[in-house]
């Protein structure tokens, strides 16, 4: 128990303050009071108080903001909130934020001294979270006057006090062997079951998996699709990438928000539906699109979005939103998605017919080393964009010491504008699994994992069924194709919304049940990857190429494409064109020919390779798509002359700022500085020296960042400086008096003006 006697009362009602002072003063506490929230925060943060007692209705500030601020700035201070009769909802929210207790007006002397006493006995956040259940129970008893909110509250209470919480979490952990390396599966299941991973659930998980709560919390807080706050039973996540915005995403957003009656980032008062933005969900060819839980809703308009919300309110079943399933396997009962494949050009490698097992059987006719030689002879390079020779990577893994090895497939295509893996996973999973199995044979691995991005969760059951079928016919499991001792199996590991996990070492961290933090290299994954095992990691398309090389031969494969970029490339084309979709084309194809093929309308710029790639103008349309010229992991966004190129660059920079894992300074801070200087230039506040500044800073970020995300994050700025210099030059000008304006007093005063409601007099020359 903490000896604590100093209390700050934040309330603007003199009668309440007076009675607090009288009652608490009489009980031996030292009491100070202030009437406004701003002053309350200032005093509480700076003063030596043990407890703050605050009204949730303050004249200058929502009391909830005060609670939030104190929980961040002074988590050790106990907080008791004072609520009115009608603020059940606020009380519940404040309890979830971690207040120690609450008291309802009008209160008796005993009620207030009891509440203060209880709060001071539970100053620790851990104890406070244990206290949450009883507080919630208490608040529930007041919910009768607010029946709609009562349901929401009930959900919270069920979550907080459920006697089955402990048993259910334990059962989920046991399902994964209480293995902390399965943390992603555990927290995803807990989130599905309870609508969030609450503080109590985190403690239970930590106990079961023999780790610390902070480890669990670090995972939950890292991924966009996980939350420790209770979300609605249905979560609508509207994609907010450039292509969605240009396709009318703003109008759709407004329609959904109006129909739900809540802003983005909020949950409806009945607790049924949450509304959020999310990064690219891999549907740019049918934008605007949204995820409704795991269900994908495509080609939204303001009208269809309103309809969708109205329907959801009636049945709360996202699957019923799919009336007309898409083509191919999108109509398979285990997929049941309205997604369209939009395959516009089938090539001979990835999208051609396949007879399952043929490629594996061909591989088994030669030795594992010969398989690697065949891959090398085919001059196959990784399709993720960097283009590292696949055979060399496999050889490193094969030669690495270690009895156990692993094959990882990167199905986390998060690069905005990319969606070709979605189509492969839907139509050609056998080809991909075949390539992984061949990798297992070549490097001597028994374990294969597909890391599937959370946005493609709708494909999981179908993919699992394909794996089952392959096991059933001896293409996975023990003694594959009757080859004694060739054992290999594949499991699916789900992601949960983090772009950085497309980086191979971050992906490995995520598979290991950690935050998706990139790792230092060396050691490289081929030497020490997943759980320390030598690991081959390639992307979906690369494994498909592997299977085809073994099936048709390396000579056949290397005759397609160009000398240093053999084979074909799947392009995901979106934006201002008549025929967005997936095109399998030989490497070396001219960009101009691609634009003609896709029906580009008056193209003025093309983003090749997504935000981390390069923006090319008409001067570059005769360049070729290949590793040594226009390298791309698959994304190709077309922009016509009506688009604001620097606005697009600003959006891309915003994306990188958001997605940086924050580990290293060049990426974490540098990208913010780039974004801010670009924003100044776009606002007409740039000077000619800014161009050099952007170049130097961009190159520094590229050079000094720790992983691929940071090393490519400055590309939107750097490539437009190179290919569209006139856009920058037209916006910067030397100041007339020679002085650079480094301080904007109007902007600096904006928040203070809003809070005080007073205008400042600014004296200028
Ligand atoms: Fe994280 Fe960015 Fe550094 Fe990569 S470069 S480790 S994403 S901060």
Topology:
Elements: E1 6-10, H1 14-26, E2 30-34, H2 37-46, E3 51-55, H3 63-73, E4 78-83, H4 88-97, E5 101-104, H5 109-121, H6 125-140, H7 147-161, H8 163-175, H9 183-194, H10 199-208, H11 213-220, E6 234-239, H12 242-246, H13 249-260, E7 273-278, E8 290-292, E9 295-297, H14 302-315, E10 343-345, H15 358-364, H16 368-377, H17 390-399, E11 406-411, H18 420-427, H19 429-443, E12 447-452, H20 460-472, E13 489-494, H21 504-511, E14 535-539, H22 540-552, H23 554-558, E15 568-575, E16 581-586, H24 591-598, E17 603-608, E18 614-616, E19 635-640, H25 645-659, H26 665-668, H27 670-682, H28 689-704, H29 708-713, H30 715-723, H31 725-729, H32 745-756
Parallel strand pairs: 1-2, 1-3, 3-4, 4-5, 6-7, 10-16, 11-12, 11-14, 12-13, 15-19
Antiparallel strand pairs: 6-8, 8-9, 15-16, 17-18, 17-19
Residues 500, 518, 660-664, 667-668, 705-707, 709-710 line the site of iron/sulfur cluster (SF4).
């Amino acid at each position: 128990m903490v000896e604590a006697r100093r209390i700050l009362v934040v309330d603007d009602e003199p009668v309440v303050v007076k009675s607090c002072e009288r009652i608490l003063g009489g009980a031996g506490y030292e009491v100070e009071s202030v009437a406004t929230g701003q002053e309350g925060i200032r005093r509480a943060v700076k003063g030596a108080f043990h407890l703050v007692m605050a009204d949730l209705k303050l004249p200058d500030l929502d009391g909830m903001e005060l609670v939030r601020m104190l929980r961040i700035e002074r988590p050790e201070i106990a907080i008791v909130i004072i609520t009115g009769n009608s603020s059940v909802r606020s009380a519940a929210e404040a309890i979830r934020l971690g207040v120690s207790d609450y008291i309802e007006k009008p209160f008796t002397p005993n009620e207030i001294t009891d509440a203060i006493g209880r709060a001071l006995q539970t100053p620790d956040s851990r104890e406070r979270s244990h206290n949450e259940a009883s507080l919630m129970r208490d608040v529930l008893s007041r919910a009768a006057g607010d029946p709609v909110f009562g349901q929401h509250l009930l959900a919270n209470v069920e979550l907080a006090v459920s006697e089955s919480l402990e048993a259910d979490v334990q059962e989920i952990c046991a399902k994964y062997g209480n293995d902390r390396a399965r943390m992603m599966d555990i927290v995803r299941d807990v989130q599905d079951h309870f609508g969030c991973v609450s503080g109590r659930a985190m403690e239970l998980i930590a106990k079961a998996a023999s780790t610390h709560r902070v480890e669990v919390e670090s995972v939950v807080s890292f991924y966009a699709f996980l939350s420790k706050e209770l979300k609605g039973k249905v979560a609508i996540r509207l994609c907010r990438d450039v292509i969605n915005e240009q396709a009318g995403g703003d109008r759709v957003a407004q329609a959904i928000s109006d129909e739900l009656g809540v802003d983005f980032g909020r949950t409806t008062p009945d607790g049924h539906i949450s509304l959020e933005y999310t990064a690219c969900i891999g549907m740019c060819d049918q934008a605007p699109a949204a995820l409704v839980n795991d269900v994908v809703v495509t080609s939204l308009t303001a009208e269809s979005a309103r309809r969708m919300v109205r329907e959801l309110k009636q049945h709360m079943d996202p699957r019923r939103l799919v009336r007309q399933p898409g083509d191919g396997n999108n109509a398979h009962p285990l997929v049941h998605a309205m997604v369209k494949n939009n395959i516009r050009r089938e090539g001979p490698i990835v999208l051609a017919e396949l007879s399952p097992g043929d490629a594996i059987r061909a591989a088994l006719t030669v030795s594992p080393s010969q398989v690697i030689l065949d891959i090398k002879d085919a001059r196959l390079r990784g399709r993720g964009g960097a283009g590292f020779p696949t055979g060399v990577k496999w050889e490193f893994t094969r030669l690495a010491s270690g009895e156990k090895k692993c094959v990882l497939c990167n199905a986390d295509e998060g690069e905005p504008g990319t969606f070709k893996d979605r189509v492969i996973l839907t139509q050609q999973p056998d080809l991909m699994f075949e390539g992984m199995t061949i990798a297992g044979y070549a490097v001597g691995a028994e374990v294969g994992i597909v890391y599937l991005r959370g946005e493609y969760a709708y494909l999981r059951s179908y993919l699992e069924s394909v794996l089952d079928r392959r096991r059933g016919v001896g293409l996975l499991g023990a003694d594959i194709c009757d080859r004694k001792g060739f054992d290999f199996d594949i499991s699916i590991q789900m992601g949960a919304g983090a772009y950085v996990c497309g980086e191979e070492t971050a992906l490995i961290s995520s598979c290991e049940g950690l935050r998706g933090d990139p790792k230092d290299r060396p050691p490289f994954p081929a030497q020490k990857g997943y759980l320390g095992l030598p690991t081959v990691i390639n992307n979906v398309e690369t494994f498909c190429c592997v299977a085809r090389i073994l099936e048709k031969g390396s000579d056949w494969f290397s005759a397609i494409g160009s000398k240093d970029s053999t084979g074909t490339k799947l392009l995901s084309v979106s934006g201002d064109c008549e025929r967005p979709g997936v095109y399998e084309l030989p490497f070396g194809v001219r960009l101009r020919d691609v634009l003609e093929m896709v029906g580009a309308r008056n193209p003025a710029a093309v983003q090749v390779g997504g935000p981390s790639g390069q923006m090319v103008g008409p001067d570059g349309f005769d360049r070729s798509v290949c590793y040594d010229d226009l390298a791309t992991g698959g994304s190709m966004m077309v922009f016509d002359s009506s688009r604001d190129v620097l606005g697009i660059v600003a959006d891309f920079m915003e994306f990188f700022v958001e997605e940086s894992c924050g580990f290293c300074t060049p990426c974490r801070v540098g990208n913010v500085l780039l974004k801010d200087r670009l924003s100044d230039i776009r606002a007409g506040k740039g000077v000619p020296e800014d161009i050099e500044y952007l170049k130097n800073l961009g190159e520094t970020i590229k050079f000094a960042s720790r992983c691929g995300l940071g090393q490519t994050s400055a590309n939107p700025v750097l490539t437009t400086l190179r290919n569209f210099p006139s856009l920058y030059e037209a916006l910067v000008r030397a100041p007339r008096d020679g002085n650079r304006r480094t301080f904007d007093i109007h902007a600096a005063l904006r928040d203070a003006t809003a809070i005080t409601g007073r205008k400042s007099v600014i004296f200028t020359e």
